[in-house]
Amino acid sequence: MPQKARTFDALEQRLGYVFADKELLRRALTHSSAISPAKRVHSSYQRLEFLGDRVLGLVVADLMYKRRPEANEGELSRTLNSVVRKESCAEVARNLKLGEDLVLGDSEARTGGADKDAILADVCEAIIGAIYSDGGLQRAYKFVERSFAAHLSNQDARKADAKTALQEWAQGRGLRAPSYKLVERSGPDHAPIFTIAVHIDGFEPALDVGPSKKIAEHKVAEKFLERENITDSQA
Q1: Options 53, 91, 108, 217, the catalytic residue
Q2: Is-contact 164 81, C-beta < 8 A?
Q3: Nearest-CA neighbor of 147 among 52, 20, 48, 22?
Q4: Is residue 232 part of a domain?
Q5: Which of 87, 91, 117, 125 is the catalytic position?
Q6: For residue 48, which of 126, 155, 195, 209 is within the disulfide window of CB 3.0 to 4.6 Å?
Q7: Average pLDDT of the residues of the chain
Q8: 230 vs 177 pLDDT, higher one
């Protein structure tokens, strides 16, 4: 197949890592829709995604432990969760233009699979798993530290984990946990737009939109925090 025979020089340059085993990289970019059911487990990115998810969590936990000596366990956990979430992985995948090199089945390609958050997040984790398998933990560590740099900052982590901050703020005041409700779904199937409202007893609902329910929920939580002037110390 011409697509499989192509080189990955440009992609490896963007990744900052050259694979000794190119098959690992090819597999990390191959969606299950492009593989026959009998071969999906070992020929698609599924197993590498599983591995990469664990490597990502370990690396981010170690980075947070070293960079934030003043943080307690709860603060470290919130930061970890904000960095390793699917939305962050999808953003990293877009920055690296992984969608350009994805191998998709015809149906998935026609419905915009190369730009779907879920697929991009999965392939980002698969790339981490592939780098770990090919070059070891040190190379995977450097890749994560470089590629997730923006998400590792305190400010970005705080914004990314707005849902957790809002929930803790509500619980600290004896209020029920925030309730997120879908107001509207619009746009085509391959590029949907979700409008989400967050409700907290005694407060006006806040609304925001995003390309997925999860992203919209994080954005509306952040909007609520900003509207009510809720700071880190209050949350």
Answers
A1: 53
A2: yes
A3: 52
A4: no
A5: 125
A6: 126
A7: 87
A8: 177
